[in-house]
Amino acid sequence: MKILLVYPEFPETYWSFHYALSFEGKRSAFPPLGLLTISALLPDDWERRLVDMNVQSLKLADIEWADVVFASAMLVQKDSLGRVVELCKARGKRVVIGGPYVTTSTDTMPQADHIFMGEAETTLAEFVRDLERGQPKRIYQAAERPALSSTPVPDFQLADLRHYSAMPIQYSRGCPFQCEFCDIIEIYGRVPRTKSNEQVLAELEELLRLGWRGMVFIVDDNFIGNKRNVKRLLPVLADWSERHCYPFSFMTEASVNLAEDEELLDGMRRARFRRVFLGIETPVEASLKEAHKGQNTRCNLLDSVRKIQSYGMEVMAGFIVGFDNDPEDIFERQIQFIRESAIPLAMVGLLTALPETQLWRRLEREGRLLVESTGNNTDGSLNFIPRMEATRLVEGYKSILRTIYSPNEYYQRALSCLERVVAATPEPRRDGLASDVVTLLRVVLTLGMRDRARGEFWRYLHRALTRHREKFAEAVRLAAMGYHLRKLTELDCS
Ligand code: B12
Ligand code: SF4
User: CA nearest 376: which of 456, 217, 492, 254?
Assistant: First the structure.
């Protein structure tokens, strides 16, 4: 059996990091871990090929080669997925689809032959058996969420690692909290399930064997969802890293209560976590309460950010406007908070009702739902009737983006971040010195010569060099990221 695994194209969004990645000569941030995991669950003697359309085009020859096509998508990839399914069906191929989009919106891809809802660790084996018997079903959905002990080491070797800026691994699924807008808890549940320490090390060993060096993104919904287990993992991870001369550094996503736990923070510092993404959402307490995000109201959010930064981790964070309780001055308050927090990568979105969430159900009851979301909460579109007048909300939202990504504001935050994030040892080298030099030249050529904000860039670089010389590589990386965020803002919000 020949299996073609296809990952549809992402539209250009803040999250594509397109403009920043091009400096490094990378085509995409991460390979598709869902498909690499699916591949590892298939019978050993089946042949597999991966086409990540974010790094290479889908060729007719690939489709012709395959007996079965497997595709995975988030909502934001829906249009591209639709085109993939159409193309493959037109060539008479059997098409199997799965992933977060398919899980939450089943009835929207009528041409696909088989639909996998939820996690596939148990259902895929059932499909393979059914297929061999000639009786595959249209819909597969596991009765229970699988234990992650059944998740194999992903087939990382299928991806051309050179095209990506970081590698993903997953330690846990699910999150114990219950934020109203969140679809994670609907898809992956509220009881965090973790892999064993041995499984994690086996995945790292495999990445090492394949020659990967550099950033590893632990793509958990909430890395500290199961604190007891993660506290057992961290010393093992630190020890492994030391024994292997620190080939990787780590980034992950976590809830803000990370700041309350010094044992966890210390464990993460020792294991060389460099970045952590927090769901801060808003500094407005009434809006946090409305969103059932109680964990963010029990602390001073700015202090929590500062504490995490003091453990050597850059904080990235998500922010949302559009809650019913947002006051008229919400836009200024978000800007002020972001300014004071020293979070360069502040990702601000409009509240979005994703299918099957508590928010979706409430708005449906209140008769306020308009359309299915585009899946991209930064494209300025609303899929429900907000309390605030819609035009004012969208305009205010865009004014946040224009302000926080403007060169002065962004470079100032980047400098404050360099100042606060305690000096760490250099990050592991991925592609060697020559490649670093080429990246630097590209950044200097674009930001320091061609860009209209070149004056701000040189002032930033000068201050970074004089005050934080040992963090020069970090300073350049942040500048590149800021350029991406500003470019998109100029395209979308002018
Ligand atoms: C890493 C990640 C990213 C990476 C991209 C990684 C990549 N190239 O794939 C980055 C950071 C770039 C990213 C960006 C975005 N992301 Co994202 N991301 C994730 C995250 C944290 C992990 C994904 C992952 O690797 N999971 C691990 C694998 C093993 O799990 P899985 O994909 O679910 O696969 C399992 C099953 O679903 C199933 N399966 C999956 N595919 C298939 C296919 C077949 C054929 C079969 C049979 C089974 C199957 O089997 C697997 C094993 O059980 C998820 C959350 C999560 N827990 O998954 C969010 C998530 C997928 N992202 C999400 C969103 C919304 C986004 C953004 C739109 C951001 C935003 N808020 O606007 C952007 C879009 C990207 C862009 N360029 O614009 C949502 C998707 C919601 C939806 N219903 O579509 C999620 C679920 C998180 C959330 N609620 O916010 N993301
Ligand atoms: S903390 Fe994050 S992952 Fe957990 S429920 Fe809230 S939004 Fe979802």
Answer: 492
Tokens describing residue 294: 């109680």
- Give the chain's length: 494
Sequence-ordered alpha helix ranges (H) in 244-317: 262-270, 285-290, 301-309
Per residue in 251-273, pLDDT (tens digit) is: 999 999 999 999 999 999 999 99
Judged on CB neighbours under 10 Å (0-12, 13-18, 19+), 171 is: buried
Q: How confident is the model at residue 192 (pLDDT cuts 50, 70, 90)?
A: very high
- Mean pLDDT, rounded, for 355-381: 92
CA distance 227 to 295: 15
The tally of CA atoms less than 13 A away on the side-chain side of residue 243 is: 10
CA distance 17 to 485: 8
pLDDT reported for residue 107: 65
User: Which residue has the least CA distance to atom 8 on ligand 2?
Assistant: 182
Question: Which ligand has the shortest distance to the CA of 222?
Answer: 2
162 DSSP 8-state letter: G
Contact 165, 21 (CB under 8 A): yes
Q: Is the dihedral of CA 399, 306, 420, 252 positive or negative?
A: negative
The CA distance from 136 to 129, in Å, is: 8
Token pair recorded at residue 492: 């979308």
Both tokens assigned to 291:
């969103």
Residues 6+ apart with CB under 8 A from 254: 222, 223, 224, 276, 277, 278
| pTM above threshold 0.85 | yes
| Other Cβ atoms closer than 10 A to 153 | 17
Query: Which residue among 15, 102, 175 has the greatest number of ligand 1 atoms within 8 angstroms of its CB, and so is best to mutate?
Result: 15
Are 377 and 352 in contact by the 8 Å Cβ rule? The answer is yes
Give the H or E element holding residue 477.
helix 472-493
The closest residue, in CA terms, to atom 18 on ligand 1 is 219
Dist. CA 77 → ligand 2 center (Å): 22
